[in-house]
Please model this.
Amino acid sequence: MRSSWYSQNELSQMGFKSIGENNLLSKNTQIYSPEKIVIGNNNRIDDFCILSGNIEIGNYIHIAAGCYLYGSHSIVMKDFSAISSRSAIYSATDDYSGEWFTNPTIQESYRHIIHGPVILNKHVIIGSGCTILPNVIIGEGVAVGAMSLVNKNLQEWGTYVGIPCVWKKERSQKVLELEEFAREY
Model:
């Protein structure tokens, strides 16, 4: 019976910039430019994800099925963060103002690409079907509700929802106490 997860040996041979231990990475995930990708320890990346470009994944992170991380600039996911299914993170996007062309078949001199880092700090959780655009820092402990659009920085320990997302309420910080138990597990 064939495992649906890459073995540690297979992961170490894929050419990642850095790869830790105890990672579950689906064999149905597409990896582009692995030499630009850092993956820490104790992570899980499910089926049908795409990881492309400059991506840094910390420790104890879950990326659910069907997520897309396009890190042409950079994407950083810090410890204990998670992305629910069908969410996408873009560190670059075309300018949709109508002043420029908007697709990769056109010379870059006729395009205006907006790019910048995307950072998910510790204990961030992104709900299903969310989109995160370039130049966004999501503060520690933030929860983003399903189907939300994140196009600006989000302050720590808040719950945000909507298109574009807005602050809804404070989020509990109990996970900070639980963090020590997870590291011992």
